Amino acid sequence: MSPARTTLFATVIMMLGVPQAMAQTIHDPMSAARGNVSTLQEEEAVPLNPEFENMPDTPGMEETYYQCVACHSMSIIKQQRISDARWDYLWEWMVEEQGMPEADEETKEIVLDYLKQHFSSER
User: Fold this and answer.
1) Each residue's pLDDT expressed in tens, for the chain with a length of 123 residues
2) How high is the mean pLDDT of the chain?
3) 80-87: which pairs have CB atoms within 8 A and are 24 or more residues apart?
4) Mind listing the domains of the chain with CATH numbers?
5) H-type helices in 26-104, by residue range?
6) What is the rounded distance in angstroms from the CA atom of residue 83 to the CA atom of residue 99?
């Protein structure tokens, strides 16, 4: 809660005669959203690699980059926030419907893990 809102809230509570201690225990519905913001801030703390279109520089970056830029830019990936299951589905769709060459299982796992770590709606 913002300081101005807290002050207003405390004033209303005092006018109604509710003790301050009770006012502080009221659930703030925006607290969960603030928790998600800190998660995004942690993601921003991951170093980006300018040689790979500013992708997060963590294990799997190179494999993901070379697998994906064969067909499209990394911009399309960096804008995604889809579920882990959707990343799995998209991999199969790109292989079956779009003609993406199937990678070996190890590379597939590395790439999907990287995509899910950095571009998932579940994190």
Assistant:
1) 555 554 544 544 455 554 444 444 554 444 433 444 434 444 568 999 999 999 999 999 999 999 999 999 999 999 989 999 999 999 999 999 999 999 999 999 999 999 999 999 998
2) 78
3) 80/115, 80/119, 81/119, 81/120, 81/121, 82/119, 82/120, 82/121, 83/120, 83/121, 83/122, 84/116, 84/120, 84/122, 87/112, 87/115, 87/116, 87/119, 87/120
4) 3-41 (no CATH), 48-118 (1.10.760.10)
5) 31-44, 61-68, 75-78, 84-96
6) 23
At 61, list the tokens: 């970056």
Amino acid at 39: T
Tell me whether residue 114 is exposed, middle or buried, using C-beta atoms within 10 angstroms of its C-beta: 0 to 12, 13 to 18, 19 or more.
buried
